[in-house]
Amino acid sequence: MTTPADVHDVRDPGLPGRLLAAERDALVPLLRSRADEDWALPVAACPGWTVRDVLAHCSAALARVVEKRFEEGVFSPGSNERDIAERAGWTPARIIDELERGMTDAGPVIARAGGALDQVALGEWVHAGDVRVALGEPGAYAGSSLPEALALLVSVTRALGHVPVHADLDDVDEPLKLGEADGARPPGRFIGDAATLVRLYAGRSVEGPYELAGVEERELVIFG
């Protein structure tokens, strides 16, 4: 059984960095083991993007965080496409190197940002799941870093004032309380596995059975 990291109402500034480091240790060796032609595979969760595009976006986003390059429109679709285009001539190894550095160095910067960049770390973890699906690898939206990802999902949805949801997870010991319970509406209820919960919040297609009551799927999505 998996138990998510301790989650309190007070933000844990080190949590995003721990999630990135755990995912780095799992993802980077996997990427280095794959053939270059695998980088041309389409990523269903990101229409029009290949594995290369997703990883170039991820490495660029973390490089921006580390270097504190946040010009107007940063992380918009246009900005993301420009970052990908800038890396079009890079070898897979170079992109992986940049991604590994970003996953190592971004944590302290995110910690000091007071929560403003926490969602970047969660997005990187979700994109790692997108890449695993494209490569036919197991562990998408799950794996050893799932406890940290769930804890960060709780923290991010609270900070966003998101719709309140109580999640009873098949593969996690303790229920999760997501979103902001401000009394304006009763919490929704989710019953299912953790990977399905992540898929719903990330706006990804859902494969396994689940129950959702008191809230619509579209209300859960936190990534545009």
Estimate the global geometry from the Cα principal axes. Answer: globular
Whole-number mean pLDDT: 94
Report the helical percentage.
40-55%
| Percent of residues in β-strands | 5-15%
**Secondary-structure element series:** HHHHHHEEEHEH
The major pleated sheet works out as:
4 strands, mixed
By helix and strand content, what is the structural category? alpha+beta
InterPro entries: DinB/YfiT-like, Maleyloyr_isom, MDMPI_metal-binding
Pfam family, one: MDMPI_N
Features:
alpha+beta, disordered N terminus, Maleyloyr_isom, MDMPI_metal-binding, DinB/YfiT-like
Provide an overview of this structure:
Pfam families: MDMPI_N. Residues 20-106 form the Mycothiol-dependent maleylpyruvate isomerase metal-binding domain. The chain is of the alpha+beta class and 224 residues long. Helix content is 50%, strand content 7%. It has eight helices and four strands. The chain is globular and about 50 Å long.
Short description:
By secondary structure, the chain is an alpha+beta fold. 50% of the residues lie in helices and 7% in strands. Helix 1 runs parallel beside helix 5 (118-135) and helix 2 crosses helix 3.
